[in-house]
Amino acid sequence: MDVTEFGSPGAFAATYAALVGLIWARYFLVAGLFYWLLWGRPEEKVRADRLAAQRPTRGTVSFEIRMSLLSSVIYAVPGAMVIEAYKAGGTQIYTSLATPLEWVWIPVSIFIYLAIHDTYFYWTHRAMHHPKLFRAMHLAHHRSRHPTPWAGFSFHPWESIISAWPLPLATFFIPIHIGAVIFVLVVMTIAGIANHAGWEVLPRSLIHSAFGRHVITATHHNLHHTDYNANYGLYFRFWDKLMDTDKGLSKPFTPQTRHL
Ligand SMILES: [Zn+2]
Ligand SMILES: [Zn+2]
Questions:
Q1: From ligand 2's centre to the CA of 240, what distance in Å?
Q2: Ligand with minimal distance to 147 CA
Q3: In which residue ranges of the chain is pLDDT below 50?
Q4: Which residues pair with 200 in a beta bridge?
């Protein structure tokens, strides 16, 4: 690849600004929808299991939105770099689906990308729980003891700077179809928002099936916000189980568990 093909600083700035707008829009759209469906209507109309012992406060929501908007500004930097590099032909993102191998590679590449993200997240997340790093880097995320859908990307800028890189970097080394890139981003968005929703929207039967034993859901991640030393993973329970940090699932909220 010829680096002169990367484009001008002006082109990068335009891509970056458009990407920030796009990331903000998808955040307000998805988090707003989850928030309205789960917290904006009478509880008897919500067909999900409530996890949060406390209803969202205005202060929590406002903080989560401000932090998520800020993290988007940071995430858009490597994102715009990938787009500009893609336009110059410098990434491993492809568009053709001509051979059977290219079709088979789609689910394989999606799994590889999610596994890379999950592994990077688990270990950096555990590191940020070290007492020397926690206050400066990760306390902002844990200010949401009873997180709301708006907390999906509520990270301190230091945490965002650290967590922004694995997926963009992977596009330079591991071939992936552009549709699979979009799929991974959709999974990332929905998982981040749903797992902080304060409600479990998935059926109980699924949570207690093989899916729930291996994939992280709101019921699993909610426990991380009440018990800081457990359930560090992002998509899969693999690392938590291997490293003995998986403390299982949180219990649905009932008035009897209000004291939790
Ligand atoms: Zn944490
Ligand atoms: Zn969280």
A1: 15
A2: 2
A3: 1-5, 257-260
A4: 49
